[in-house]
Design brief:
With about 400 residues, the chain is an alpha+beta fold. The strands form 5 sheets. Strands 11, 12, 13, 14, 17 and 18 form a 6-stranded mixed beta sheet that branches. α1 runs antiparallel to α2, α1 packs across α6 and α5 runs antiparallel to α6. The longest helix is centred in the middle third of the chain and has 22 residues. The two termini are about 35 Å apart.
Length: about 400
């Protein structure tokens, strides 16, 4: 049997829970699920638009309802009932759902645990291991994993009884060279493995799912700093801007924000409307960074609260993934962009639902209903072209602030 053992350490809090919601824990199925997700992204560079071939390869390695997995994932038992206290406004913003009014339990930074991957086929276990490399270096584990939470790293190189073929640790502060070389090795390795397993190659014509390829992905590295919170702030200052008067201003995210949507809704309510339908937003592109989006604004003893989603898919995971990694005793942030089709049949509108509420002493009363379309594009604009323009601006902005290491 082939085996690879990993000694891991939490860099940022891990908000991961099982059946018992009162405690945080690392779960093997969740780790395996993330490895599976990153395998899909990496293998997408080989299969391209051949979704059927990709699915067969995924099932061949990780199993399905009708096929046993060819790899086994084992974890040491770690649990925590502690909650995490954010050190600044950036952490509070990124992890709001886990640390605000009803804080969720989290495995604290510096928590250590061990992970073992086993398998009887060397090609299969190599595939699982390189998928784990991507999950660790570019992603996170648990809730808010795309926004720095659940960042983990190795305390030493893995112990394996086969040749992994890549270093898990940078071993150098020349991070650009390390990542350029490693990404080239990863793409070459997955291609060789899938070819050896008998799968046919196809091309990426239009990415309909997240694909890690030279045509569809970009990776950027930030400054090497002394603490994880400094690493988060390095990216946060670009993404969110500065914190003034209880809100962030000036960052890339709010360059494309219409902060008057709630005001529009409230004005319609003041006109006597109890049912508020379609709303037009100006320069609102935040849905391109992920759905749903929660909006809230208070007006004296009343407030507007609504959710922006899509008609056929309430959730569309962000194409922007942020994590924190470690080199020696220092930390650095990484931003990954996986650009793929925004939403099927997207025509320039997203769904808006919620209402206007009145604060009473012990409860809230809904005084107006909001349900309809939020038009984020002016009439006549090409949705696909606007989406492309947004991502061109995103990539150019990242290039001007950080070091691009892929493609």
């Amino acid at each position: 049997m082939y085996k690879a053992e990993f000694k891991l350490e939490a860099i940022t809090p891990i908000f991961m829970r099982g059946a018992d919601q009162t405690k945080a824990e690392i779960r093997a199925p969740s780790i395996k699920g993330l490895m599976r997700w990153w395998f899909r992204a990496l293998a997408g560079s080989y299969f391209g638009d051949d979704i059927s071939g990709l699915r067969k390869a995924e099932e061949f390695v990780f199993g399905s309802t009708g096929r046993r997995s060819r790899i086994m994932v084992e974890l040491s038992n770690v649990e925590s009932e502690e909650t995490y206290l954010p050190v600044d406004e950036f952490e509070f913003y990124f992890w709001f759902s886990q640390v605000s009014r009803s804080p969720k339990p989290a495995l604290q930074p510096k928590t250590t645990f061990e992970l073992t991957i086993k398998g009887y086929d060397e090609l299969i276990i190599k595939t699982a291991v390189i998928s784990l490399w991507l999950a660790i270096h570019l992603g996170g584990f648990g809730s808010r994993a795309r926004k720095f939470a659940g960042s983990i790293f190795l305390s030493e190189e893995p112990n394996a009884n086969f040749d992994i073929g890549i270093d898990f640790l940078p071993h150098t502060t020349n991070l650009k060279s390390y990542y350029i070389d490693t990404f080239a090795t990863l793409l070459e390795s997955i291609s060789e493995i899938l070819n050896a397993l008998g799968f046919d190659r196809s091309e990426v014509k239009e990415a309909n799912y997240p694909i890690f390829s030279r045509r569809t992905a970009h990776v950027f590295v930030g400054k090497v700093v002394s603490t994880p919170s400094e690493a988060i702030k390095n990216i946060g200052a670009w993404y969110l801007g500065t914190f003034k008067k209880r809100k962030f201003e000036g960052g890339f995210r709010f360059k494309y924000a219409d902060r008057k949507i709630a005001d529009q809704i409230y004005q319609e309510y003041l006109k006597g409307k109890k049912r508020i339908g379609n709303i037009k937003a100006k320069n609102e592109r935040r849905p391109y960074l992920g759905l749903p989006i929660q909006f809230y604004k208070k007006f004296n003893n009343e407030f507007v609260r609504f959710t922006v989603a899509h008609w056929n898919a309430n959730r569309r995971a962000s194409s922007l993934i942020m994590t924190v990694n470690k080199v020696e005793d220092k930390y650095y942030p990484i931003v990954t962009v996986l650009k793929y089709v925004f939403l099927p049949n997207y025509r320039g509108a997203v769904k808006c639902s919620g209402g206007v509420y009145r604060d009473l002493k012990k409860k809230k009363e809904k005084v107006a209903n909001v349900e309809g379309a939020l038009f984020i594009l002016d009439r006549g604009k090409d949705p696909k072209k606007e989406y492309e323009t947004f991502y061109d601006d995103l990539i150019n902005s990242l290039r001007s602030h950080f070091t691009e290491v892929f493609p």
